[in-house]
Design brief:
This protein is of the alpha+beta class. Helices cover 39% and strands 16% of the residues. Strands 3, 4, 5, 6, 7, 8 and 9 form a 7-stranded antiparallel beta sheet that branches. It has a 6-stranded mixed beta sheet with strand order 10-11-12-15-16-19, sandwiched between helices. Strand 8 (309-315) and strand 9 (323-328) form a beta hairpin. Helix 7 (102-127) crosses helix 8.
Length: 685
Amino acid sequence: MRSKISSVLSTVMIGALCAWSAPGFAVVVEPAPQDRELARIITRELERRHLAAETLFDSRRPQVGQLILNAFDPSRSLLTEEDLFRFPVDLLPDQIERGSLDSAYRLYNLTLKRQRERGEYWLSLLDSSLSQVDLTDDESLAFRDAQSEWLPNTMALQQLWRQQLENAVINLALANRTPADIEKALRRRFISQLNRLEQTRPTDAFETVVNAYARAYDPHTQYLPPADSETFNINMSLSLQGIGAVLQTEDEFTKVVSIIPGGPAQRDGRIKPADRILSVGQENAELEDVVGWRLDEVVSRIRGAKGSLVKLEIQSGDGDPPRVIEIIRDRVQLEEQSAKKHVLELNEGRDQVGVITVPTFYSDFAARQAGDPNYRSTTRDVARLLSELRAEGVTSLVLDLRNNGGGSLQEAYELFGLFIETGPVVQIRSSGGQTDVRGDRDPEIAWDGPLLVLVNRLSASASEIFAGAVQDYGRGLVVGSQTFGKGTVQALLPMADGQLKLTIAKFYRISGESTQNQGVIPDISFPSPFNSSEIGESALETALPWDQIRPLRYRRLGDIEAVVPPLLARHQARIQIDPNFQVLVARANRAIELSKEDTISLNLEARQAERAANEAWSLTLENTRRTALGLANIESIDALEAAATANRDNPAEDAAVIEGAQILLDAIRLSPRLAETVAGPLPRE
């Protein structure tokens, strides 16, 4: 017996609202003469200028063919083993370097043909009233990525496509769409994908091929075409009016890479990294399905005038129901991304700990260059906040760098200069082996008291430089989860058409250790909801490796390592009975557990039961915490989400901040010297 939704769908498919009229030919792209020349120039410049050209690329060159396949078909759902027998992908790097793009374009054209066949197959199932779709059996869809095995032939592809359609139907059903709405949404989605397929441009193939080649050097090296054809990462913040997010294409989906501090998405709080954007709507207009769209087209729908409303249909994962979020477009304001302070009252008011949150390392460069004495920057703002905390009698500080993706390098080492007299902070080594040392030359100290730095997996680049310096000097404790591991420097090289962004240098701590790939390992670790195999530099296939160079001469200010074991023991004892931290642990463990699932049920009732179980789990967890704290229970998942949103920016409700503050207080009790003034000049290299 087929599911209720299948039977109802079968009655509404007849007399479809939209129709696909095939143009009678499949789009075919061919390399232009200028593309061949540009490919030769790009590969030559990479060989001349990239940091890893002499040390790594020769060993990675055999990967180029597979990287191109990954770019063409990242989910292994278009090409087959039979296809690959006909394409000698091992020859592709030589061909691209010679400017011979014909083989790569033929393979690209085959993926276009398969995308067309898949779309027409899905429409044929809709036209036949979904007679082949059964949402009551025990079938599962295996998640597919670049590590999945190639399917043997096109018959196996069709089986996969059928399963993908069933999953699309279930996702819409879980969003409480009516059968008629499901049919309408899917038909529009597939027709839109086919129409856009016919608009494929030769430049799309060129970017895909050349950037796959460049990825063999490292994941941050890429060719950037002129602005009107950007199709990789698009930052909708600062200079653009939108939602304040960095997006990229992954498979058929537009995926959120990161949230920009101070932007509308960050203020709203409901959009997270790794979320997918399924549909976009304007004001009172209907949502427009954007699955399968080009990234620049999706971004053009999300951008808009300041103060206008955009509706986004978001899905966090294959097993999660989509949800619609309304956001008011705005610019990212410097004030909104600036550092902020808060004073925690702990242990029944006996202890006060200052908390400064630094969302990004920013600087108003235009005002600074213009000589404005009141220009804004991270360092200047934090110095002011530190002065205010001192005036309030606060003597210990938590600096929160969680979710801080970096920004100005200069601000990173100048900010650290507020906590020491003078000394080196970071080393930058270029491809020629030359090392540049940056550090603090101002002997003034803004904060000489105890310091703890809070980090997580989304703390990257400049955040890692700051946290690493805190550890190297023994200036304070670093607590949280392993950081992102972005320790490379990129530069833009103008091309005749577009730009080449390539990695030219690497960051190193003053201890000689790189922040690349490994990031900063905290002194005391907190559970993380982020799966390190999915998020972080180490999750990127061709990330440059960790290494180390000669350390600099510097004098450590404290022996933090000696106090870590007793701190860890106290931390473990405290969190066992702390209801707030137990919720943090449980949520992190569950997030990691769910991220490891490699299949999803294609049984509608089973998926509905999974959703109900997840909601019940969340409510039970929260109400267990509330009972332990003597608070009233929450009755619904909507009320739970509303409460989470209301408390999102309140450090007093943040278990990680509170526990970090308790660890800092423990450190002061165990080692009173931490509370003394930092003294003595620091030698510089």
